[in-house]
Specification:
By secondary structure, the chain is an alpha+beta fold. Helices cover 40% and strands 18% of the residues. Helix 2 runs parallel beside helix 5 (120-131).
């Protein structure tokens, strides 16, 4: 008996520790169809259907921004360029800045419109300015995607409105936002903006992840009925950078909740945050029925 008891004293704590660890690091329950979280070295911290083909929606604009920053760096454009809005750009559907045909708008204003207001007309105007027309710009987008190794991605426009040809996956989008922020750090500030003013109108995006102490500093949203709610997120924590893609959540609020759960999981997994203590279950009350005392 003593031997069995001593073995139990050794084994039981190990079993309880393993159980607690497994519960602490259990994968988060998510609403999104596809999710990918990478660290600064590109190591996968968490993934769900990262290769699944999805519609990118406005995450397409990350490539539009990349090509704009590249053109500025190489002297083919300047942030103070005055862009003449084409009839094509003025007709692109929601969401919009309300650009008018023939209107003159600085390129820097259009880039803010793309990043913060997710304005589709602004993205089309940027494409026209940099390549002459949107189809030519889309060719550049696809060429740059091939250069990056985005084998699952096909761009069909500069803004992300639905097109049967436009497809991507979480892996490719993570690669894209990672390259954008690495090659052009100014994009970090642009994608971290929450308000944008154009023609007296304030465009504000209410992103709860910016207010949560998760280190989120750059973010792009995307939505179409086909794609669902998409997010591209970059967070800095403890001197480390994390890149995350969320594709196909059923609501905007759910996409933010999915992102928060995955980031917290990643911080625990990489040792930046301590594991959350196991929640103690309330003890069930046991009703003791007092036996009637027998009379002799």
């Amino acid at each position: 008996m003593l031997r069995v008891a001593s073995i139990a004293l050794v084994v039981l704590p190990l079993l309880f520790a393993a159980s607690a660890s497994a519960q602490t690091l259990r994968s988060p329950r998510l609403n999104a169809e596809a999710v990918l979280l990478l660290d600064a070295d590109g190591r996968t911290i968490f993934e769900k259907n990262a290769d699944l083909e999805r519609a990118p929606a406005s995450l397409v604009k990350l490539m539009t921004l990349y090509l704009a920053f590249e053109a500025i760096e190489h002297g083919r454009a300047d942030v103070e360029d005055v862009v003449t809005v084409s009839a094509h750009a003025s007709r692109v559907g929601r969401y919009r800045m309300g650009l008018r045909t023939g209107e003159h708008v600085p390129l820097r204003v259009l880039l803010e419109g793309v990043a913060i207001a997710s304005a589709n007309d602004a993205a089309a105007a940027v494409a026209d300015h940099l390549a002459g027309d949107e189809p030519s710009f889309v060719e550049r987008m696809n060429a740059k995607g091939r250069e990056f190794g985005m084998a699952a991605t096909r761009f069909a426009n500069a803004h992300g409105l639905p097109d049967v040809l436009q497809r991507t996956n979480a892996k490719d989008m993570a690669l894209l936002i990672g390259r954008l922020l690495h090659d052009y750090p100014a994009a970090r500030t642009l994608l971290g903006g929450q308000t944008f003013i154009y023609r007296g109108r304030v465009y504000a995006r209410h992103i709860p992840l910016f207010d949560d102490p998760l280190g989120v500093q750059a973010l792009k949203t995307g939505f179409t009925h086909e794609a669902g709610y998409n997010l591209a997120v970059a967070a800095w924590r403890g001197g480390q950078e994390f890149v995350m893609i969320v594709l196909g959540s059923r609501s905007r609020a759910q996409s933010f909740l999915d992102a928060k759960r995955v980031l917290r999981f990643g911080f625990v997994e990489t040792g930046l945050d301590p594991p959350e203590p196991e929640r103690s279950r309330p003890k069930k009350s046991i009703r003791v029925r007092r036996a009637a005392q027998a009379t002799p």
